[in-house]
Design a protein that fits this description.
7-stranded mixed β-sheet; about 25% helix; metal-binding; Asp_de-COase-like_dom_sf; Mopterin_OxRdtase; 4Fe-4S; iron
Length: about 775
């Protein structure tokens, strides 16, 4: 493997102080641009791209043989990951030519029928006829569209445009509603912009790092290098999590609070900081509004009160306050653990209040970040597939914003629908027959949405349902039409990672015969609906050019980002208003936010209990999350042999005080139902809490038990806490095989461990060879 252009300049030094102007320590520029490498032996080609999974977006090379097929992966020295990859990234390439791939449209006119493989014309014509039948009978808003945050940004742009221009419906949302919207809501309220304030590289410079509600070691494994780098420099690590996760085990301070009490904890931390005179009053006076009201509110949360609410020692609250406030530079990052709540936005706001009150905003090593769960969790909500937003993060209720987009799209403002509802609310509307038809793209609500019984009832009530996917998910298996579409390796496009760094994914192979890109299917449906002149896009590049124009001048400005620049730099952080602009890796360096007054708008937060009340019958907290071997609904990872071997099934983590032994059958009961899991007995969880990973379908689905209560502002479900009880059972529930197309069976080599009745030997999982 050799560089094809030896005349190119040598990589810049790793010293962040002399990084390229405007980027500072956003990236150290040590890796060569993506397009300057190739393999020249045995007909093999290395295609530079990025992982399809989490929001870290690790760089990788896909290995392509002389027949043009992806057959392996190599780590890439991209400055995001520096050659590191996690188990999911190492195995991701196996999806591309997997035997379970869908390679022909599936169709049935009734759910009582079996699927049959049909031609593209038949599947498209049936879908269009059903859209027209439903909308002509019940109105345009009787049809909905649900997108996904693992799609390239070009495709998320098309999802929003297709819903509003071709379907002419207000009902469009996406599965990022289950991920980042609480953080987004808090960021917009406080800063007027929805993204992390600092790049990952700033973590290396901090003196105190607070991680709240994020199991980094399992959910974002390669991000761990930044945490370890900070520790190597002597930074103090604080982890706030009910479980002693892999990261929490290495923390200087682990705050194992009761689920659903985060805002009470952070209010109390700020109470101590105020009481001990550790706030940065000069910064607050110059750069904020609302501080006096926040100060009055946190005065009502002394450590003794919050300690009782949170189930932790009062002394620990004081300890965290002093360590964070007296550090020279402090940072806070959070994820779903504090966001998946009916108080999710408010939880995030209390973390923002903490950072701002101590002056830790907009500086190298000092700031605030949110860790996106899906690969395009950041970019997926920026350009129009969210129910209340238009491209560029514009508000769909703002007349000026509406007029701007209508000019770009070539439609009248009166033709543009208003704001729709959230993903979970759309399911409720399907139950009530307000939404009678649905297209789903890159999502699997039968596993990922809470309260499965309600979700199944909503989808079953719908008169027509079509789904785009490359595997037959549990949700697609319930549809009328399934369109077989490309994997990430069979198309090109951009994603924005957790830093808001836009990176370029490159096409590594042609799709299998019979498979089309999501872009082609969306544009073809639009053409058959009579809106084809608005969707004349041969591919992703043409969509991206319109996206650039549609975002120009907005907070989410992509105008200065081009495919060529992304190839040359390895990624550019938005906003980037011109092709000469270096991007904006660190926000607020000049002390100004994106509100018109330039101030940080601090928000008052009062703690309230979770929505699912504790009683004698349901005294425990059930919380859910991910495990290192699997991703979200598991539709991709539950088909990959090494990952199934590492973590073949879900389990329930219980404290030893409950009297169970490893492997015992434990029934977990909530107000939504009950399921039986093998016990993983560990002191790494609170006695009043149980944990289940959520990557599996019924009858082993954690989300058959979780509550469909929503945050009133972000409409995110309260996955992270619901009332439960546990009891002994006779045998564990079996994990079902993944759904497959007619005439196929689940690839047996990937399912050999699936029926293992025992839990892993640790929360990190294990391979079958490690079973004693």
């Amino acid at each position: 493997m050799t560089a094809t252009d030896p005349a190119q300049p040598a990589p810049l030094p790793l010293d962040p102080a002399i990084a390229p102007p405007g980027t500072r320590n956003f990236r150290d520029a040590g890796g060569l641009p993506a397009d300057r490498w190739h393999a020249d032996q045995n007909g093999e080609t290395l295609v530079p791209t990025h992982c399809c999974f989490c929001g870290v977006q690790c760089g990788m090379y896909l290995r392509v043989d002389r027949a043009g097929k992806v057959f392996g992966v190599e780590p890439r020295n991209h400055d995001i990951n520096r050659m590191r990859m996690c188990p999911k990234g190492i195995n991701a390439y196996q999806q591309v030519n997997h035997p379970d791939r869908l390679t022909a449209p599936l169709m049935r006119r009734s759910r009582d029928e079996e699927f049959k493989e049909v031609s593209w014309d038949e599947a498209l014509n049936f879908t269009v006829s059903e859209i027209r039948r439903i909308q002509e009978t019940h109105g345009n808003d009787a049809f909905g569209l649900l997108g996904g945050a693992s799609l390239f940004s070009e495709k998320t742009y098309l999802v929003g445009k297709f819903a509003r221009v071709a379907l002419k419906t207000k009902h469009v949302d996406y599965n990022g509603r289950l991920c980042m919207v609480s953080a987004a809501g808090a960021n917009k309220l406080a800063f007027g912009i929805d993204r992390a304030g600092n790049p990952f590289s700033d973590i290396l410079l901090t003196d105190c790092l607070l991680i709240a509600g994020s199991n980094v070691g399992e959910c974002f494994p390669v991000m761990t290098q930044y945490l370890w780098g900070a520790r190597d420099r002597g930074a103090t690590l604080i982890v706030v999590d009910p479980r002693e996760t892999a990261i929490a085990r290495t923390a200087d301070i682990h705050v194992a609070l009761r689920p659903g009490t985060d805002s009470a904890f952070f209010n109390s931390v700020l109470h101590v900081i105020v009481a001990e005179g550790l706030t940065d009053e000069a910064y607050l006076a110059a750069h904020t509004t609302g501080w006096d009201e926040v100060k009055k509110t946190v005065a009502e949360y002394p450590p003794a009160r919050s300690a009782e609410i949170c189930g932790i020692p009062a002394e620990q609250i004081t300890q965290v306050a002093r360590v964070f406030a007296t550090a020279g530079k402090a940072m806070a990052w959070h994820a779903r653990g504090i966001e998946h709540h009916s108080q999710g936005v408010e939880n995030c706001l209390t973390v923002i209040n903490l950072c701002v009150a101590t002056g830790n905003i907009g500086k190298p090593g000092a700031g605030y970040g949110t860790i996106t769960g899906q690969g395009n969790g950041q970019g997926g909500r920026e350009h129009g597939q969210k129910s209340d937003l238009l491209p560029g993060g514009r508000s769909i209720t703002n007349p000026e914003h509406r007029a701007q987009i209508c000019r770009i799209w070539g439609i009248e403002e009166s033709e543009l629908p208003g704001a729709g509802t959230s993903m979970m609310e759309m399911v409720w509307q399907m139950q009530r027959k307000e939404i009678r038809g649905l297209i789903g793209i890159c999502n699997n609500p039968f596993v990922s949405l809470p309260n499965y019984a309600v979700v199944k009832a909503g989808y079953d009530t719908a008169e027509f349902h079509a789904q785009f996917d490359f595997f037959l998910s549990e949700t697609a298996a319930n549809a009328h039409v399934v369109f077989p579409v490309t994997t990430w390796a069979e198309d090109e496009g951009v994603m924005a990672n957790a830093e808001a760094r836009v990176v370029k994914h490159n096409k590594a192979q042609e799709p299998p015969a019979g498979v089309r890109t999501d872009t082609w299917v969306i544009c073809e449906l639009a053409r058959r609906l009579g809106a084809g002149h608005h969707f004349d896009f041969p591919g992703s590049r043409e969509v991206f050019e319109e996206l650039r124009i549609a975002s120009a001048g907005t907070v989410n400005d992509y105008y200065g980002i081009t495919y060529d620049r992304l190839e040359a730099t390895g990624g550019i952080a938005w906003p980037c208003p011109s092709t000469e602009h270096p991007g904006t890796p660190r926000l607020f360096e000049d002390g100004r936010t994106y509100h018109p007054d330039g101030k940080i708008h601090l928000q008052v937060v009062e703690w309230h209990p979770p929505m699912d009340a504790y009683t004698e019958e349901f005294p425990l907290s059930l919380t859910t999350g991910r495990t290192v071997a699997h991703f979200l609904s598991g539709n991709q990872t539950r088909r990959l042999g090494a990952l199934v071997e590492q973590t073949p099934r879900p389990w329930v983590e219980v404290h030893p005080s409950h009297g169970f032994r490893d492997g015992d059958a434990v029934r977990v009961v909530t107000r939504r139902g009950s399921e039986v899991f093998p016990a993983l007995v560990t002191e790494a969880i609170r006695p009043d809490t149980v944990f289940i990973p959520y990557h599996w379908p019924v009858p082993t689905a954690a989300n058959a038990l979780t509550i469909d209560a929503l945050d009133p502002r972000s409409k995110i479900p309260e996955y992270k806490v619901c009332a439960a009880r546990i009891e002994s059972a006779e045998r564990v529930d079996e994990v079902p095989e993944p759904p497959t197309a007619p005439g196929h069976q689940a690839y047996p080599e990937t399912q050999v461990s699936r029926t293992d009745p025992l839990p892993p030997t640790s929360p990190q999982g294990r391979g079958t060879a490690e079973r004693s």
